[in-house]
Amino acid sequence: MPQFEPAFFASQIFWTLTSFAVLFYALNRWVLPRITQIMHQRVQLIEDEIEQARQQRAEAEKIKQAYEIQMANIDKEAKRVFNASKQRLIDHHTCSMKEWKVHMERDKRQMRDDMKVAQQQAMRDVRGQLADIIVSATDKLIHQRIDTPTAQKALDESIADLKKHLN
Q: How is the chain split into domains, by residue range?
């Protein structure tokens, strides 16, 4: 094998070093700057995406906080509306009960007044009938005719005596 002969070592080393230097120069001049540029672009792209993700995360956090605040406000508003409705219902119930009590008192007074009127009417009717009965009974008993005013006076006295004994 010729590559292992010592006579060819010097030329092989020379050409190896020359090939390496040309390859190194070509790589350093055209290939490595291109690879470095692509790597920098990728690093910049990744950093931009990370920054964008951070911004989106911060934005999402702000939206979440705003949502939580809105939910708390909605909850407070719902409680306020519920309490207001409850209070209106209680007020309406209280007002209705007051109106009912007033109506019942008015009906009770009306009923008492009607009872008094009916009682007075009944007393007049009874007095009138009793006066006629007394006149008729007296006429039959003593064969004497007494007039209605006298019978009415006797009836009033009897009723007054009866009230005194009852009280």
A: 47-166
